[in-house]
């Protein structure tokens, strides 16, 4: 099989592969900066959707130059990491994309790198779910945690069923449908979702440019606030990219909601050459592997009852964009972070950043993580 083309990486970043096939069946694609020696603390970066290890391109060299070994990896189902279940929607083992397997994946990767622990695990969006799961399940291995753009919430008390159990309307989807709306996580879990993401009418480049724009601070309409309730009326105040019109695909949502908008304002933080990487990779792989994460999170997961009510015990901070609606997807979840994390050391909402702070405001993100590192050193 031919290797994909080289990535346009900034100076100081190396692309390579870590073979974990004998342990978990995966061959990870990683981006690294710095030297892998025991004296250099390991910082592990987990990306979200629809992103890649490449999303950390501005952050990795900063910490590599500071004497750390900074590593970002394409997660299971994403980018250049291979070996995950590529069977079709009806036959794929969806458990392979769940939280416990995500943690096992990270343990295998880090062990193959020759490390016995991670100094800080940093995760954004779905990567924040990975990072929080790692810190919550294995505090002996992951010494500290940075959660970005997706606040952590402990598994509900017995007999919890994961993300789908939330206080409020017990039939939220029927209620949303009555308002001609739907929730994006469940929309991304349907049999048609991958085809809709793979083949947007406006073309993948225009679709992704618009999607990144709508969830960023470049779209000045993003003025998030706390939701009043987990009800259809409560959720309906969010932008369409979180609660689309009932009969719209995400591509149709993006096309309609970017009409008349200055989408080109994203060029300052997402130039064409960088966007082309995402277009190239998603064209090559398709979206089904990544969308399987949504499928896993929107069905009951009995295994997670093992962690019912369990909090994160290691030192933790939260970083996000001030203009990010992702902070407010669940009513009050941001405000409950100090309760969910036993050693919560603060939050920083960066003005001028939306849902992609490590791309929109990378210097500010680096400074916040660096400040956390210094605080941990005492």
From TrEMBL:
Question: Which SUPFAM superfamilies did the record assign?
Answer: alpha/beta-Hydrolases
Membrane-spanning ranges: none
Provide a Gene Ontology MF annotation, just one: hydrolase activity
Keyword terms of this UniProt record = Hydrolase
What InterPro entries does the database record attribute to this sequence? AB_hydrolase_1, AB_hydrolase_fold, Epox_hydrolase-like
**In what residue span(s) does the AB hydrolase-1 domain sit?**
42-362
Hydrolase as a keyword of this entry, yes or no, is yes
Family (UniProt):
Belongs to the AB hydrolase superfamily. Epoxide hydrolase family.
Q: What is this protein called?
A: AB hydrolase-1 domain-containing protein
């Amino acid at each position: 099989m031919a290797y994909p083309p080289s990535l346009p990486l900034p100076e100081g970043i190396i692309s390579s592969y870590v073979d974990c096939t004998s342990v978990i069946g995966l061959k990870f694609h990683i981006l690294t900066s710095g030297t892998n020696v025991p004296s250099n603390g390991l910082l592990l970066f987990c990306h979200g959707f629809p992103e890649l290890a490449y999303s950390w391109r501005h952050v990795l060299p900063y910490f590599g130059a500071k004497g750390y070994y900074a590593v970002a990896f394409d997660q299971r189902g994403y980018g250049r990491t291979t070996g995950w279940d590529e069977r079709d929607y009806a036959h794929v083992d969806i458990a392979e994309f769940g939280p416990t397997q995500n943690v096992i994946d990270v343990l295998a990767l880090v062990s193959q790198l020759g490390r016995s622990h991670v100094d800080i695990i940093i995760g954004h969006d779905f990567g924040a779910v990975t990072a929080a799961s790692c810190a919550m399940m294995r505090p002996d291995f992951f010494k500290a945690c940075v959660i970005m753009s997706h606040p952590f919430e402990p598994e509900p008390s017995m007999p919890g069923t994961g993300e789908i159990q939330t206080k409020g309307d017990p039939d939220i989807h029927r209620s949303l449908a009555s308002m001609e709306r739907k929730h994006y996580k469940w929309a991304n879990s349907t049999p048609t979702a991958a085809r809709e993401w793979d083949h947007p009418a406006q073309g993948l480049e225009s679709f992704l440019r618009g999607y990144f724009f709508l969830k960023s601070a470049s779209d000045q309409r993003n003025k998030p606030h706390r939701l009043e309730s987990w009800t259809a009326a409560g959720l309906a105040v969010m932008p369409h990219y979180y609660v689309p019109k009932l009969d719209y695909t995400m591509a149709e949502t993006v096309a309609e909601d970017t009409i008349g908008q200055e989408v080109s304002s994203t060029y300052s933080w997402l130039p064409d050459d960088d966007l082309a990487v995402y277009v190239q990779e998603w064209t090559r792989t398709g979206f089904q592997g990544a969308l399987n994460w949504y499928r896993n999170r929107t069905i009951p997961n009995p295994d997670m009852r093992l962690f019912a009510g369990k909090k994160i015990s290691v030192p933790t901070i939260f970083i996000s964009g001030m203009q990010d609606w992702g902070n407010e997807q669940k009513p009050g979840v941001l405000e409950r972070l100090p309760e969910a994390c036993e050693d919560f050391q603060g939050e920083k909402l960066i003005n001028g950043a939306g849902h992609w702070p490590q791309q929109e405001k990378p210097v500010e993100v680096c400074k916040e993580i660096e400040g956390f590192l210094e605080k941990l050193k005492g």
